[in-house]
Amino acid sequence: MFWWPELTLGKAIFFAAKVWLVLLPLVWRLLVDREPLSWSPARHGGFGLAIASGVLIALVIFGAYALMMHWGAIDASQVAERAAKTGLNTVSVFLGGALYWITVNSLMEEYVWRWFVLRKCEVLWGGKTGLVVAALAFTAHHVIALAAQFNWGITLLGSLGVFIGGATWNWLYLRYRSIWPGYVSHAIVDLAIFLIGYRLIFGPG
What we know:
Helix 6 (152-176) runs antiparallel to helix 7. It is built from 7 helices and no strands. By secondary structure, the protein is an all-alpha fold.
């Protein structure tokens, strides 16, 4: 997003970082913890609360977006210009990216940040403190992506939203011991974000 986003090299670095992010928990599970892999089954439910939390966070995001646009705090042309650097200013690429981020990337993030990072934070600091530490790490990861698209004011506001989302999905994991309720909530929130992104880049039409 910052290092040569228009070049193949920049895209290769982005892809390599994604691969590393996915492989680290897997390798750690097998070689360090020496535990079998798991699909993290949702044996205790939690999907009703997952949907409710996702919708609630999405509504807050829509409300914050409406206020920011009303106050002129978001420059849609700047967002479109930055999106062009990564090819997201083409409808087909944007929709393909949105489908990937909503369905695949959100699942990958639940696997990395809840199934791996949160559980390790819980071991180190306990449930409550671990929840906060893991949410802060999740937020720090997203500050970079936000800063690539928005000014620092919007980035800080968005980071607050990311922290709230991360803390919510951490809590869902700790309560239900499965990544799937958090995934459902996460996917709903990502859908809201991409609806707003589409409007900013391509206009209300």
